[in-house]
Design brief:
The complex is a heterodimer. By secondary structure, chain A is mainly α. Helix content of chain A is 72%, strand content 0%. In chain A, helix 3 packs antiparallel against helix 4 (73-92), helix 4 (73-92) runs antiparallel to helix 6 (110-133) and helix 6 packs antiparallel against helix 7. Chain A is globular, with a radius of gyration of 15 Å. Chain B has helices at 2-10, 12-30, 45-59, 63-91, 95-108, 268-280, and strands at 109-119, 127-130, 143-145, 150-157, 162-166, 174-178, 184-188, 196-203, 213-216, 228-237, 243-250, 259-265. Chain B is of the alpha+beta class. The chains are: A mainly alpha, B alpha+beta. The A-B interface holds A 20-21, 24-25, 27, 30, 33, 49-51, 54-55, 57-58, 61-62, 65-73, 75-76, 79-80, 83, 131-134, 138, 141 and B 12-13, 16-17, 20-21, 23-29, 31, 37, 40-42, 44, 47, 50-51, 54, 120-124, 127, 129, 163, 191-192.
């Protein structure tokens, strides 16, 4: 029990530092910024109480916001992600597979995992960029940023997954 | 009753979700009114400290280019000094006016040195964090410039850090003029490229050429007159056709800000107060 808590805290702090000190300064082609910190939310155990998932999301988003000077943007997006990940999981994972797991290729299968990843990351990025821009004056720019960042974030998440194995 | 309670407990996450989202959106929309709400930004002490440490490490990577810049600037200044000394010798004959001018210039504004610990250029609204704050004399509404040109305006301060609204921010609005002809307008950034901003509201009859220097006008209380802003790069008509929109290539390189000067204009409060009473009447 305590070990899993410590494990969670380690990931929380590690991903946070990686995000705010390095990844936030990365703008590939002037557009794509990976938001890798949501890896923490995506990987929470499926049987964790949903209230606690939401609180983790709130805390994580709040700290990222403090560093990025964007109060509320990442907080709102990450809480939203923490809220929709359970319905997404229920949607993609086979109904007979009800054991509590950390979502991964090994635990829920390649195709469900990738679908879950793509849809979740995309949802989160849409909220982040729409709130950050707060206008649809430059829709093309907005869409390019959402899509390029989504692809980059997913690539980073898959990379971490392959290292952990 | 029991059913109702069961229902509430079972779906409590819905309520928590709504509460948390309301808090987040509250932060988002009320941030602009929170002049004192600097806790949730990088002016916060812990966040500021972390950025200072990481900025301290990454500053070593730029040492070489900083050094060349300094050398360039040094030689340019030496040239200027020798030129000025020459002029000074010529004008020294009229020593009383000379003494007055020197005094007036020295009292115009105070300079504080600061170092950039965090900076962004790619967001819709960019901010810069400095490692100096109220304890060092920095207050909101002071101008910030580096050796090359205007950087931004101080927005929030805590005792030892401050957040600056970069020129690359939709809230930034700096009064500028064309150096050769004195016509003035205001400088806005329209997103996208961090190297260019736009000088707006320049009257139709204004005279200028591409390549003219743009400097601060000194009309606002933030910047003193004559600080380098950039060079006119391209021109176009404004949407209503009543004024020019000039594209200005910014002199400051926002991709690599390091040491900056915070300019405190003496008499700023006095001018603000006077202008306020004048417009209220």
């Amino acid at each position: 029990m305590i070990k899993s808590y410590l494990n969670n805290i380690g990931w929380f702090v590690g991903l946070l530092l990686l995000q705010v000190l390095i990844l936030n300064n990365l703008h590939i082609g002037g557009y794509a910024t990976p938001f890798l910190y949501i890896y923490f939310i995506l990987k929470l155990k499926t049987n964790m109480p949903r209230n606690r998932q939401l609180l983790y999301g709130f805390l994580l988003g709040l700290v990222v916001d403090m560093f990025a000077n964007t109060p509320g943007v990442h907080t709102a997006a990450t809480v939203f992600l923490a809220f929709v990940r359970t319905p997404y999981l229920n949607l993609f994972v086979a109904k007979d597979n009800t054991d509590p797991v950390n979502p991964a290729v090994g635990s829920i299968g390649v195709s469900p995992y990738l679908k879950y990843l793509a849809v979740s990351v995309f949802t989160h990025h849409i909220v982040v960029f729409c709130l950050a821009f707060y206008s649809f004056a430059d829709v093309a720019n907005l869409i390019v940023r959402i899509i390029s960042s989504t692809i980059l974030s997913i690539a980073c998440i898959v990379a971490i997954d392959s290292i952990r194995k | 009753m029991r059913n109702l309670l069961n229902f509430l407990v079972k779906y409590s996450y819905w309520f928590l979700f709504i509460i948390l989202e309301v808090v987040a959106l509250g932060l988002l929309f009320r941030f602009n009114h929170y002049q004192r709400g600097s806790f949730f930004t990088s002016a916060n002490v812990v966040v500021g400290k972390m950025y200072e440490i990481s900025g301290g490490v990454s500053s070593y990577f730029h040492l070489k280019s900083t050094n060349t810049d300094l050398l360039d600037r040094n030689s340019a200044l030496e040239q200027r000094i020798s030129l000025l000394e020459q002029v000074l010798r010529e004008k020294m004959a009229d020593s009383i006016t000379m003494a007055q001018t020197l005094n007036a210039k020295a009292n115009d504004y105070t300079i504080y040195k600061a170092y950039v610990t965090n900076n962004s250029i790619n967001r819709a609204d960019n901010y810069i964090t400095l490692n100096k704050g109220e304890a060092d004399g920095i207050r909101p509404e002071m101008g910030v410039a580096d050796g090359r040109g205007v950087v931004g305006i101080v927005y929030m301060t805590t005792s030892s850090y401050s957040v600056v609204i970069s020129v690359l921010n939709s809230k930034s609005n700096i009064s500028c003029k064309i150096k050769s002809s004195e016509y003035f307008g205001y400088l806005r950034w329209e997103g996208a490229d961090s190297r260019y901003a736009y000088l707006k509201d320049l009257p139709r009859h204004a005279e200028f050429n591409l390549g003219d220097t743009v400097i601060t006008s000194g009309y606002s209380t933030v910047f003193p007159e004559g600080i380098m802003v950039g060079i006119v790069d391209d021109m176009a008509d404004s949407n209503d056709g009543l004024s020019y929109n000039l594209r200005v290539k910014l002199a400051a390189d926002f991709g690599k800000l390091g040491n900056v000067n915070v300019l405190s204009r003496n008499g700023q409060q006095e001018q603000l107060k006077l202008e306020k009473t004048a417009t209220n009447q």
